[in-house]
Amino acid sequence: MNKTTLLALIFLAAPAFAQDNANPLSTWLKNAYRNNHRELLGAAEKMPEENYGMRPGPQQEVRTFGQQLLHYVQFNYLWCAQAKGEKNPNAGNDLNKLTAKADILKAFNDAFSYCEPVYNSLTDASGAEMIDITQESGRQTRSLRMALLIQNWGHNQEIYGLVTSYMRMKSIVPPSSEPRGGRGR
User: Fold this and answer.
1) What is the per-residue pLDDT for 96?
2) Model confidence over 132-158: pLDDT tens digits?
3) CA–CA separation, 120 vs 143, rounded Å?
4) For residue 95, what is the enclosing H or E element?
5) Distances, alpha carbon 95 to alpha carbons 3, 65, 66, 172, in Å
6) pTM for this one?
7) Which of 103, 140, 146, 178: CA 20 to 30 A from 124?
8) Closest by Cα among 18, 112, 16 to 69
């Protein structure tokens, strides 16, 4: 599904799921971001440390489980800093040097702590503001603040999808598939 289609679906569905009638879109996004973080954190905590260096295949260019979590860290800082209109406080940090589970979890939680206020302060009106952003390529462009944060959430969802595959390879049930009320997935 392309980003335009995803954005359209979110904007159409958000009022039905949001509980804040004044800010249905931003309320939906805040809840979606928190839920994604909870599931990713659960995955990070459930995976034993000896599997943090695991790759799903022999290709060295494929990220390890731990590197997937660090990819989350990198982009949460990048996009939330831009949504805040400030310099990325994590720019220049060599995250690849982190390999221990405790260090990766700390970086992961620090990135969430940095981003959470961005999502918490978001309203539909502030989300509709145009902001300057820098693409990974270095190209300057403008975007709706909410679109950038939806992109961040969507990217985090992709990372969760990837780490669940790593967990399944090790016969570990991902948080989103844990039994609920006697019913598992």
Assistant:
1) 86
2) 998 878 899 999 999 999 999 999 999
3) 19
4) none
5) 28, 13, 10, 26
6) 0.85
7) 140
8) 112
